[in-house]
Specification:
- The structure is a homodimer.
- The first copy, chain A, is globular, with a radius of gyration of 22 Å.
- Chain A folds into two domains: about 270 residues, L-amino peptidase D-ALA esterase/amidase (4-Layer Sandwich), CATH 3.60.70; about 120 residues, Ubiquitin-like (UB roll).
- Chain A is an alpha+beta fold and about 400 residues long.
- In chain A, strands 1, 2, 3, 4, 5, 6, 7, 8 and 9 form a nine-stranded mixed sheet that branches.
- The N and C termini of chain A lie far apart (about 55 Å).
């Protein structure tokens, strides 16, 4: 199996069309994206665990259940989350699916829906309807780029990636696009991500592969520890490559392809986090169990004291020890180790403050690795990606909406 | 039972002396505090759950176990946490207790020790020793104020409070002092709190009363969700008032007195949180169980999106719904309610955006109440106090230590 990067995003695999148009939901810019598979596709998705999940999340979940995991299209608007909007919001999400299905000649259940933007504001049905009409008319393989722009809120840049996976059975492609933590007006940010492949795979196998590829990519990033009402991760597999995923080697190849694209998109979301200036890789080792490794890595990645120290270029290993110690994970101080950018700052219960200048030098870069060994003698580990916390984050999120 | 505020702090109850001196651990200012009971006192304490707990925490825990809950003095230094300092740190903490005991004529086990300041830096034994000598010479009932200043790191002001509790059996007093989240140089902040009373109570009953009084005061505040290596809460009861705590009514009076002082100190810590400009009371009701109420209240109180919105004066109820929804607590969107400063912004699944200006007006004040009903129909509730998140917080914590 060999994985090669490709140009393009969701339309890099065969048999996908996309469009991104402006219909006036946002004050300016593209705000409606349509992604269509030219043939019926297996479909899988992972949704927010938020108990205040938005109308499009409920609708998409129902549609996937109704079709047993098949879809033809995903329609997305930005600028309005259609969350906390009651029965009217449910009707708006349904209308988006219905109109898209009529235009494409498929069943409404074969259309998935996503929204991102302000919570608690009603979608304007006329604008959305005009947007869907325009998007259907503009569908093209070359428009993957426009779709990636149309799902953005205040993301600093569009996020798209694609790879080709070569297997003994042939080549297939995986593409993707995502939007991350940006605020609009501002309200809650939402992560939306879309993966496409022209491999041929059953809905059940696609679901498993998606969950596996997500585990150490989208599920291993954090910007501010929040989980939105609209977070959605979709995968479509239309079989256009003719490569069937039916053996163990092919399943692994599919997971590897999905993971490669998911990882690029996930890291892109962190790099483009609100006010972020650095990508931080938090690597926890020496954990007594996998869950402890994750708990400690998440605690470090979400710690305001760690994120502000990284922002300030301060190799403050004391905060790392303290956060690991309070994380709830088993922790043995006398055998714990902390390194920043490969520079050991605390080992065997003793600080090495003479090395602080070397670590401070590393912290000047745009990418930083923080390594914490919990000292339990266990062999479990976990990696989480995060960004630094800047005064700009506060500014973005404190500004009054009016 | 009647509770009346008194002037003063830890030395307001009878039979306590205190001192606060400067011995050069900090670059400037008082940095060593001594609190002494003139007679043997029952003692109880609650310590950090951090698995990287500092040397003084381990020592104080051992001393309380050795005496079965008795103490004569608490010696505290600021400017150095004596955390992550290995065997030398353990020796330094022991030396603090030993010297204090010799000077006061009691056993070392009757001395409790606390430290706060930079992690991973060794205490200078000569400075600490000189400080203890000076403090013993300066002990006076009038010096409670100096002690409250000597435990500060970069707290914006000292925190002290005292009350008198009148019961049918007579009057007793409760006093206290605390330091909160301030940074030094900067490193991890630490919460230290000291409660004194002249009530006469067994160590076991004092422990129970302290835990009960702490539950909805010190355990219900958060500045940045961190838990330091040195957090300690001490209580001394020396019986000087002659009021014995042996019946149910007296136990309740003791808890009420401890709680009254603890509450003032805890709120003072939040008000003086790093970069804080507002005290925020988060009140969660309608929870299915007590634990759910706490989980949701803590999630709201620690949410960066909520804390930045409050800082910016933005009545962003969408963030409150979203955080309650992702908190893990049972949550029913269609019956949930959100109010800011008594202004209902979301009820019965519907926003009331016309009321946003009234809520924004409330948010201009220095004290704000956020109320979230989880909509489960349950009757459980919890209150957590927090502060807003400002760019100043980032500045304080991002500044490089050199």
């Amino acid at each position: 199996m060999m994985i090669t990067d490709l140009p393009g995003g969701v339309t890099a695999p065969d048999g996908y069309l996309a469009a991104g148009v402006a219909c006036g939901i946002k004050a300016s810019g593209l705000d409606l994206a349509l992604l269509v598979s030219q043939r019926p596709a297996s479909a899988a998705a992972l949704f927010t665990t938020n108990r205040a999940a938005a109308a499009p999340v409920h609708l998409s979940r129902r549609h996937l259940a109704a079709t047993g995991g098949h879809a033809r299209a995903i329609v997305t608007n930005s600028g309005c989350a259609n969350a906390c909007t009651g029965a009217a919001g449910d009707a708006s999400a349904r209308a988006m699916a219905d109109q898209t299905a009529r235009a494409l000649g498929c069943r409404p259940e074969e259309v998935l829906v996503a929204s991102t933007g302000v919570i608690g504001v009603a979608l304007d049905p006329a604008k959305v309807s005009a947007g869907i009409s325009a998007a259907v008319g503009a569908l093209a393989r070359a428009h993957g780029d426009l779709a990636a722009r149309a799902i953005m809120t205040t993301d600093p840049w569009p996020k798209a990636h694609a790879v080709e996976v070569a297997t003994p059975q042939g080549r297939f492609r995986v593409g993707g696009m995502a939007k991350g933590s940006g605020m609009i007006e501002p309200s809650l940010a939402t992560m939306l991500a879309y993966l496409t492949t022209d491999a041929q795979v059953s809905p059940a196998a696609l679901r498993l592969a998606l969950a596996e590829a997500c585990d150490d990519t989208f599920n291993a990033i954090t910007v501010d520890g929040e989980c939105s009402t609209n977070d959605s991760l979709f995968a479509l597999a239309n079989g256009a490559s003719g490569v069937r995923i039916d053996g163990r080697a092919e399943r692994e190849a599919l997971v590897a392809g999905l993971r490669a694209v998911a990882r690029e998109l996930a890291l892109g979301i962190v790099r483009g986090g609100e006010g972020a200036t650095k990508l931080v890789t938090v690597r926890v080792t020496g954990a007594a169990c996998r869950e402890d490794a994750r708990i400690a890595a998440r605690a470090v990645a979400n710690s305001l004291l760690v994120k502000t120290a990284v922002h300030g270029g301060d190799p403050n290993w004391g905060r790392l020890v303290a956060v690991a110690g309070r994380s709830g994970a088993a922790f043995e101080l006398s055998r714990a180790r902390v390194a920043i950018g490969g520079v050991d700052l605390f080992t065997g219960g003793q600080p090495h403050d003479d090395r602080a200048p070397a670590a401070a030098e590393v912290l000047r870069g745009a990418e930083v690795t923080i390594a914490v060994n919990l000292g339990t003698g266990g062999s479990h580990e976990a990696t989480v990606w995060t960004c630094d916390l800047s005064a700009e984050y506060v500014r973005i999120n404190a500004e009054y909406r009016t």
